[in-house]
Amino acid sequence: MARALCSISFELNRQVGLLLQRSGKVEAVIVGDFRGIMIPQLSHIRSRGRLKGLRLVHTHLAGEDISDEDLMDLLFLRLDLLSVLKVAADGLPEQLYSVHLLPNSRDGKNWAFLPPVHPAHQNDSFEEFIQALESEFTRESSIEEVDTGLDRAILVSVSSQSKIRSEESMHELAELARSDDIMVLARVLQLRRKINPRLIIGKGKLADIMIQALQLNANLLIFDQELNPSQIRSITDYTELRVIDRTQLILDIFAHRALSREGKLQVEMAQLKYLLPRLSSRDDALSRLTGGIGARGPGETKLEIDKRRINDRLARLAKELEKVSKERYRRRSRRRKKDLPVLSLVGYTNAGKSTLLNTLTKSDIVAEDKLFATLDPTSRRLRFPRDMEVVITDTVGFIKHLPADLLQAFKATLEELEEADLLVHVIDLSNPCFRDQMKVVDDLLRDLDLGNIPCLKLFNKSDKVLDDEILMAEVSREGIAVSALELDTLAPFLGKAQEMMGKILQAS
Ligand SMILES: Nc1nc2c(ncn2[C@@H]2O[C@H](COP(=O)(O)OP(=O)(O)OP(=O)(O)O)[C@@H](O)[C@H]2O)c(=O)[nH]1
Ligand SMILES: [Mg+2]
After folding, report:
1. CA distances from 377 to 44, 89, 416, 425 (A)
2. Same fold yes or no, 151-251 and 340-507
């Protein structure tokens, strides 16, 4: 076979290759040019264990043995083995060079070369060799590989921001992942002065990530930056891992959490709007975009990935949403008749809004250490100390880079905030980035035209930072420090809120 391959290659003056299955069956014949060979898309082929289950044998005509390009192919495609058949000047086979991946790096390398042999002297223990390699891969990672059925992700950030900001953002991304039941295996941060709009990440860096993914058995890459269609392609052209970005992760969380009919409709709409411009007819990358995470519509619905069907679906969703929001409008005007003043809790996700509502009204709505625990607005009655009754509402939390489509979709729900007589901006004082978070919330409130409603700043989780006297003094000039977990600390807040509410009602 080696002889035939060499002579064809020699005559065509092009590299020629065979992709072989473990059984020896030929998966594909590839004809390249003099210097290189393009391996076809293999994503339809399921991997056998950690490796791809395919071996590539191809010719080299220019006298070189295994090149960097070959190593990249080995790595990105997770080939079982890559062999180069060097063709001699007379068109006959000269030597066979082979390389395979390693479960652990040796001398900083994740691959190992086999001693070159003459093709005629090749021994046939390939199957055994691959079995041994596979089990070595499995053994090396068996310690952390308790199969929990969770997605296993590597977080990637390519950022032009400062190191501290980028790390904080990455931390938030990890929290988002955790909130979506995704296991975070590693974080890769690359600081760049400028981000290339076409290729977000270089091939070398991507190779590093692929090595880690292989060693840690990751199945998902999550980027902290929103990826445009060409950036997605620049990554998915090389890797078979699923690739999503921060926006999709947030959308996925929302898809999991949405309970109300309106919430579900809104999330599905946002997901489809996000996907639409990222669709192109030939896109195999997209099926990876939508396979598994990101393909999960709210509830039981599965996202459809056909452009025309998406457009039809979007039109239908818009109609249904209109109907639902009319109903809500009617409900709202009924409530309006009772004419209780409305106090709305707003703030960054995980700030403690739901906890506060629970403590104040002795309720039991979901409050947990996850981002976006609350999606659907909840209202309760609250009696102030000096005999005043108000409606207090809890709302969806805000986050930086809140996907525009999502914000758009939730506008109807957030419109309820327009009814608020008083906003209470709940801030997680224990978060080192609370100033940035405050700004995100203030900016969003302004975008939603809610900037004119009187707003009381509530610095929550003060129990965690009581020692920091400077900080406590600083924030007590701007608002009120409390701990939503302890009813006793809330008296000054209730007093102030009632006072403000009284003035507002008088003025109106
Ligand atoms: N130590 C401390 N933890 C708090 C306090 N208030 C809330 N938490 C915790 O913070 C976490 C988030 O609280 P939630 O009330 O769910 O926050 P949220 O603002 O409603 O969050 P979303 O619904 O995701 O926007 C929970 O684990 C709470 O127990 C507080 O005053 N002190
Ligand atoms: Mg909440």
Report:
1. 43, 76, 9, 15
2. yes
Reported as half-sphere exposure (CB side, CA atoms, 13 A), residue 320 has a value of 15
Tell me the CA–centroid distance for residue 380 and ligand 2, in Å: 14
- Whole-number Å distance between alpha carbons of 496 and 484: 16
- Assess contact for 424 and 346: CB atoms under 8 A: yes
What pLDDT is recorded for position 286?
A: 46
Topology of domain 340-507 in CATH is Rossmann fold (3.40.50)
User: Ligand 1 center to residue 487 CA distance, Å?
Assistant: 14
Residue 372 CA: nearest ligand 1 atom is 24
* Of 279, 401, 372, 393, nearest in space to 328 by CA: 393
| C-beta of residue 18 within 8 angstroms of C-beta of residue 29 | yes
Q: What is the pLDDT of residue 168?
A: 92
Whole-number Å distance between alpha carbons of 214 and 38? 22
- Strand 422-428 to 455-460 pairing: parallel
- Which atom of ligand 1 approaches the CA of 396 most closely? 25
As a whole number of angstroms, the distance between CA 496 and CA 348 comes to 22
How many A from CA of 378 to the centre of ligand 2?
9
* Ligand 1 atom with minimal separation from the 482 CA: 31
Distance CA 157, CA 201 (A): 9
Chain position carrying tokens 């393909």: 295
- CA distances in angstroms from 235 to 45, 204, 305, 354, listed in the order given: 19, 12, 20, 39
* For the CA of 428, the nearest ligand: 1
Residue 364 in tokens: 């039991």
Q: Where are the domains of the chain?
A: 2-141, 151-251, 256-318, 340-507
Could you identify the atom of ligand 1 that is nearest to the CA of residue 351?
19
Residues contacting ligand 1 via CB (< 6 Å): 347, 349-355, 367-369, 371-374, 397, 460-461, 463-464, 483-485
Whether the Cβ atoms of residue 423 and residue 438 lie closer than 8 Å to each other: no
* Pairing status of strand 109-117 against strand 182-191: unpaired
- Residue 219 CA to ligand 2 center (angstroms) comes to 30
Identify whether the C-beta of residue 310 lies closer than 8 Å to the C-beta of residue 359.
no
Q: Is 184 helix (H, G, I), strand (E, B) or coil?
A: strand
Model pLDDT for residues 126-174, shown as the tens digit of each residue: 888 888 888 887 776 654 555 567 889 999 999 999 999 999 999 999 9
Instruction: Provide the whole-model pTM.
Output: 0.80
| CATH class name, domain 151-251 | alpha beta
